């Protein structure tokens, strides 16, 4: 029997995330809180499998596996799981575990079911340049943070909807307080913007050296995502974009951030593989 | 047919049969209770515990013969001045496993006026501790009370009999917690120094609210209530200027119309930089302009809203009564079997 491939491990990871999502959903439908310890264990198992799968893929492509849409989406899911495992417990939001499992399951399963996303296996796309690799990984990690922010924003929206309509029982009773959700949203938004700013700072050094090396659609997409999140953060801090509108903005921006992966990936197909063209 | 085991009994009266006027009459303050115990000194009551709350006066005991229970009834009527006929009309009695079932139901809050309330559990514990301290409980009542506490705890944990708040003041506090998480860092402004406002403010205080401010159209009443609540008083005419300083506004004045306008709330929001604001309108007619509810991050609840939430919570508790009683019956039977096997007839 041939040894398991990187995709096999990534399927194991997707299965774990899916189990977490289903358990969370069942608990939610029964209007009960799921066990946070069990959810943490399930997510940690998925994270371990996914880390190993991405490690094997990294060995195969000779660098951080960010060479096609499949790898970008997998890395985003991995970032969200990593963040939850590192800081999720501190947030004391039991539903965040379910949300992370659902997000990671959605992203990993869809990416595994789309063969075209993984058709081109690009090797050594960073040309051994660790800074470009760091820039790309940091950018994708910030997308993982924005993924968690999107989940918290959806919880906020639900909580606000319930409070405005005087619905406090059932699923609404399982949600954290509005103030807790607001504080966590702000922290995640600030963290995501900082990470993406760091990524862009590293990338811009390379771009200033060789402006022609960076594909314009990719540059526009990335800078637009950064500008939009930064604007949301500024407006939030000034008390202009708050509450339900901030929640909807964060959810919408994450969808836009995911869609921005398309022009980023397309830029690689348009340009020859070189260290300069590789970064997301 | 008499059941095997000791003659364990419960006898007494509660809100279920005795109206308030009679409950006032049968209350047993310490001096009356002492007089009752004196009268019973020569009786054959081996063990006796008295549960005396505003809603019930009940005895749990172990008698040598049924005549000892009759002696207890007579002594009770003598110290309270209640006629035997009047007492017979409100008297409840149970023996053996039924007495255990009743005690566990009382401790679980199933017999309370406010179904599922928690206070009664502590009152039963106090009654047991008091009987223990005066040496009136023996092996049977020790086991009965301890096991009844376990059964009551089990019922409270495994059913929804105590879930959700069922009083307007506590629902208001629960609501604040769903918005602010904790009340320690939340600032509360109370408009009006009437009864409902005071009750609500006390409920907030008991759940950790530290920064309380009272404003009333009668400054003396505001100052008096502020002193009672360890709060600060604010001149009523200045409250709208300071709305932005508060997270929770409880309005319970007797003003004939709105005193908090949507424009006041909108103006205060700028100062609050989008932080959530809970408006609790406990007045009739309403104090707060209903239009304020449409503003971002502003949550307005009036008396009807809170009453509906309380009613929903109560209905949820009522739906659990049958399950809770079945659990208690099962536990009571098991406790009784243990008593019979250990203490016999």
How would you explain this protein's 3D organization?
The complex is a heterodimer of chains A (280) and B (345). Chain A has helices at 6-29, 36-61, 69-91, 94-113, 130-164, 178-209, 216-237, 243-259, 261-270. With 280 residues, chain A is mainly α. Chain A folds into two domains: 1-123; 125-280, no CATH class. The longest helix of chain A is centred in the middle third of the chain and has 35 residues, at 130-164. Chain A is globular. With 345 residues, chain B is of the alpha/beta class. Chain B has helices at residues 20-26, 30-39, 66-80, 84-90, 97-107, 119-133, 139-158, 168-180, 195-206, 219-229, 262-272, 303-318, 321-343, and strands at residues 7-14, 45-52, 56-63, 92-95, 187-191, 211-215, 232-233, 248-251, 277-281, 298-302. The model of chain B has no long low-confidence stretch (mean pLDDT 91). The two termini of chain B are 13 Å apart. Chain B folds into two domains: 7-161 and 320-343, Beta Polymerase, domain 2 (2-Layer Sandwich); 168-311, Rossmann fold (3-Layer(aba) Sandwich), CATH 3.40.50. The chains are: A mainly alpha (280), B alpha/beta (345). Chains A and B meet through helix 5, helix 6 and helix 8 of A and helix 8 and helix 12 of B.
């Amino acid at each position: 029997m041939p040894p398991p491939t990187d995709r096999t491990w990534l399927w194991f990871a997707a299965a774990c995330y899916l189990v977490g999502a289903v358990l969370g959903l069942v608990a939610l439908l029964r209007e009960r809180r799921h066990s946070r310890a069990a959810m943490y264990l399930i997510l940690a198992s998925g994270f371990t499998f996914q880390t190993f799968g991405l490690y094997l893929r990294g060995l195969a492509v000779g660098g951080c596996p960010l060479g096609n849409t499949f790898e970008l989406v997998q890395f985003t899911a991995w970032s969200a799981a990593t963040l939850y495992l590192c800081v999720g417990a501190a947030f004391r939001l039991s539903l965040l575990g379910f949300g992370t499992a659902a997000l990671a399951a959605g992203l990993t399963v869809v990416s595994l079911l789309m063969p075209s996303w993984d058709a081109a296996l690009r090797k050594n796309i960073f040309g051994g340049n660790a800074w470009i690799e760091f820039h790309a990984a940091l950018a994708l990690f910030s997308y993982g943070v924005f993924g968690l922010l999107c989940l918290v924003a959806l919880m906020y929206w639900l909580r606000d909807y319930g409070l405005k309509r005087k619905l406090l029982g059932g699923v609404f009773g399982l949600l954290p307080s509005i103030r807790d959700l607001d504080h966590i949203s702000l922290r995640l938004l600030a963290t995501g913007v900082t990470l993406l700013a760091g990524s862009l700072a590293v990338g811009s050094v390379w771009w200033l050296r060789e402006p022609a090396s960076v594909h314009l659609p990719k540059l526009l997409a990335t800078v637009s995502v950064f500008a939009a999140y930064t604007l949301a953060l500024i407006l939030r801090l000034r008390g202009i974009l708050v509450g339900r509108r901030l929640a909807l903005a964060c959810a919408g921006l994450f969808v836009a951030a995911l869609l921005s992966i398309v022009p980023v990936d397309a830029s690689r197909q348009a340009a020859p593989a070189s260290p300069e063209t590789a970064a997301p | 047919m008499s059941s095997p085991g000791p003659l364990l009994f419960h006898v007494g009266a509660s809100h279920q049969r005795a109206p308030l006027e009679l409950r006032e009459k049968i209350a047993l303050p310490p001096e009356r209770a002492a007089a009752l115990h004196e009268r019973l000194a020569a009786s054959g009551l081996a063990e006796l515990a008295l549960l005396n709350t505003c809603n019930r006066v009940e005895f749990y005991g172990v008698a040598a013969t049924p005549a000892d229970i009759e002696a207890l009834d007579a002594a009770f009527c003598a110290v309270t001045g209640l006629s035997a006929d009047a007492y017979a009309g409100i008297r409840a009695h149970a023996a053996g496993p039924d007495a255990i079932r009743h005690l566990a139901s009382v401790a679980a809050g199933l017999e309370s006026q406010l179904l599922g309330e928690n206070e009664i559990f502590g009152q039963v514990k106090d009654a047991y501790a008091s009987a223990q301290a005066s040496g009136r409980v023996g092996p049977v009542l020790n086991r009965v009370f301890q096991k009844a506490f376990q059964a009551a705890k089990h019922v409270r944990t495994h059913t929804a009999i105590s879930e959700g708040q069922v009083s307007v003041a506590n629902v208001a506090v629960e609501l604040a917690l769903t918005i602010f998480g904790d009340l320690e860092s939340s600032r509360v402004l109370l408009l009006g120094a009437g009864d409902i406002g005071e009750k609500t403010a006390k409920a907030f205080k008991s759940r950790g609210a530290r920064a309380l401010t009272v404003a009333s159209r009668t400054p003396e009443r505001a100052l008096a209530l502020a002193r009672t609540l360890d709060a600060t008083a604010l001149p009523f005419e200045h409250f709208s200027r300071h709305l932005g300083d508060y997270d929770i506004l409880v309005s319970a004045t007797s003003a004939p119309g709105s005193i908090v306008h949507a424009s006041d709330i909108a103006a205060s929001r700028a100062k609050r930089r989008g932080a959530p604001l809970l408006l609790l309108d406990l007045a009739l007619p309403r104090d707060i302009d209903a239009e304020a509810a449409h503003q971002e991050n502003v949550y307005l609840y009036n008396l009807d809203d809170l009453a509906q939430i309380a009613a929903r919570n109560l209905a949820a508790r009522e739906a659990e009564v049958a399950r809770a009683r079945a659990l208690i019956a099962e536990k009571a039977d098991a406790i009784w079997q243990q008593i019979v096997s250990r203490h016999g007839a």
